[in-house]
Amino acid sequence: MSVEQDNEPTFPRVDLLGLTTEEVQAQVDAGAVNTSHEATSRTLGQIIRANVCTLFNGLIFAAMLLVLATGQWKDAVFGVIIIINTGIGVATELKAKRTLDKLSILVASDYYVRRAGQQVRVPHDEIVVGDLLWVRSGDQLPADAKIVHSWGLELDESMLTGESKTVRKGEDDPVYSGSTATSGMALVRVSAVGASSYASKLTAQAKVYKKTHSDLNDGINTILKAMTFVVVPLCILLVWTQMRTVGGFQEAIATGAWRGAVVSAVAGVVGMIPEGLVLLTSLNFALAAIRLARQNTLVQELESVETLARVDALNLDKTGTITDGGIVYNSLVNLSGGDSGQLEQALVNVSHEENPNATGAAILKGLAQVQPSTQIRARVPFSSARKWSAVAQEDGSSWYFGAPEVLLSAQKQHFEDVEQQVSALADQGYRVLMLAQEAQGDCDEQNPTLPSDLKPAALITCSEHIRDDAEQTLAWFREQSVRCRIISGDNPATVAAIAAQVHLTGQDKPRAMDARKLPSDINALAEVLEEVDVLGRVLPDQKKAIVQALHAGGHTVAMTGDGVNDSLALKEADLGIAMGNAAPATKAVAQVVLVDSKFSHLPDVVARGRQVMANMERVAGLFLVKTVYSALISLGVVLTGIPFPYLPRHITYIGALTIGTPAFFLALAPNTRRYKPGFLKRVVAFAIPGGLATALVVLLMAWFLPGIMGWNLRLPADLSQLRTVCAIVLFAMGILVLARVARPLKSWRGVLVAVFAAAGIIGAFIPFVAHFFAIVLPTGRSAWATLAGLVIGLVIMGLSVGFLPQLIDKVQRNHSAR
């Protein structure tokens, strides 16, 4: 701490001495200093643990260890997916964390306190309980306090309350950290610091980490959980079956054939796990996050991309979202019947101060065509304590400008009609000021007082500056069937007027309500909200209750905000969206941060989420087909005691060319269809016909081909021939499923299917690829057997796809009816 000597600002004289050095040290020793440790996001350890310790990783890792134990590392290639999948999740969240941490760094401001009779300049962290703190215009309060002396102090408490209008503060009034002084000055006594402050307590609940709900991940996890119950016993049975096919356990262990038996068992297990779907989900979420980051939109949790696709209710905070906090001049209402040009000239003259406030600056900008007069004899600058300003002109007239209720209060006569006009304009959402004239008089700069013969000359209307992109953005949401509501701490009439200007409800008039009249019961509140577009005078706890009520009504809710008062509601919402200039605690609980605070980014955010989810549902069927046919083939192998008809490396090759890689391209296609819950049911309905057909064809080949061809499956060469034929048939069936998913094929999708079909065939003729993936091209009778298998597969696939979907749909409808 240091005593400011050079360029020390001027402070009013006060008799209070403040804390002594010993008293300050005692508070420091007691820990009553203004420091707090706010985590802006998850820690590195939490991020790594969340991405590594998953059910999917556990299953794949266990299967990989089994294969590696056999020494056949080529068949363990599938384990690389764990590294890629985990790496994508960790890297994306770390990038979001770094960006958020940078956003959360506040400007380290110094403050003046009065200690031992001197003005002492101290950093934010060295303020202690009991300090006498000077609060000047422009300062953000660093701690909670109570006012000792006030010289016209006005505070902007919108970050805490949502109320955009400034609040006048007097002696003994409490003031809270996070508020900003807009005018005046005060000496306050610090009452709470650090974690004990009001803002810290308000955000304490919001600091608890909440994982974003993902319908897609829930569906995948449901599959994985089901596979867990199936995989373990089936793996044991597969190992037992494969041991028997090579002569039993003793012979298998003695000859080393147990290694092949374990690898064959893992082939069945790995095929049942949709590892590519998990990888593609993470990859597409990550790509969506990267694309949004290029548009200054930070996605902090990958799963929130999915939530974007499901949103049907969007709660908007007025200040910072619809408006940018600035003031604009609207109009001059002539009350005197005189020359409006003369009134505009007088208004510009009285507003043209050396340092005009926000209202004065807005008037000067709005009337930029009017040049201020140089014929000014005297001036009384605006004061928030007086709430008026004045100028005296060379022609002898004086003009007074300020709050209507203040200017009218000094008059002898009652201007009832003017008061009615003021009230009517205020109800329309305008900030109303008055210009009054004293025909002959002078304003006293040294002892400013209002004369008693002022005559109202004009009413001046100003309003909050609406973002240029607000109306267009809201129109997009209406077209996409997303219901938008404006929720604010401001006067309902003011908010409703702004909502009407941006056409929140199109051509209809927005329905507004005072939040103080809302029911406390969640179900009753849900019914009320269906009939309300605008809510004013909303408290922080009510914002949270509003989100809960919308959830009760079956809605997927997104919430925007920038203040500490929004943090609880953002955390409660399915998707919290914070502005880049928001409070650190608010950004910490949001899933999405609009870094440049532009509301117009939201359509891109929602559209990107819809693209990812609609396409992921399309390609998820590909992966689940593999799960279905792998489970059925494994079951058939166990029941009939035959060698497994393909190797893990075969399924890796086939899966890459018919599922994983093409699915990546299909998932990037444009798609704005709104996502609807029920992902798993729709995907299962698609996967069962294709999976059943594929499993049946492969099993038929494995059961009957050895007898027809005269193969002895205990001979490696004959077993290799069978596995090659089955792998080729499996590949062809995979291409048929891919063609079904990619429809319509009269576009680039048809080319995509043809390219991957050709890639699979060409790969078999490349020696390195054929050797690595154990592909042996069939010749002679084997080639004819392969061709017969392809024809049978085409017929069975056609019958299955044509009949089973109708049967499944009928069963689902009957189940829903019950």
TrEMBL record:
Keyword Transmembrane: yes
Topology versus the membrane: Multi-pass membrane protein
Entry annotated with the keyword Membrane: yes
PROSITE patterns in UniProt: ATPASE_E1_E2
Pfam families hit by this protein: E1-E2_ATPase, Hydrolase
Principal location listed in the UniProt entry: membrane
InterPro entries tied to this protein: ATPase_P-typ_cyto_dom_N (IPR023299), ATPase_P-typ_P_site (IPR018303), ATPase_P-typ_TM_dom_sf (IPR023298), ATPase_P-typ_transduc_dom_A_sf (IPR008250), ATPase_P-type_domA (IPR059000), HAD-like_sf (IPR036412), HAD_sf (IPR023214), P_typ_ATPase (IPR001757)
Compartments where located: Cell membrane
Spans through the membrane: 52-70, 76-94, 223-241, 261-287, 619-644, 650-671, 683-705, 720-739, 751-777, 783-804
Ranges for domain P-type ATPase A: 112-206
Keywords of this entry: Membrane, Translocase, Transmembrane, Transmembrane helix
NCBIfam families in the record: ATPase_P-type (TIGR01494)
Protein known as: Haloacid dehalogenase
Source taxonomy: Bacteria, Bacillati, Actinomycetota, Actinomycetes, Bifidobacteriales
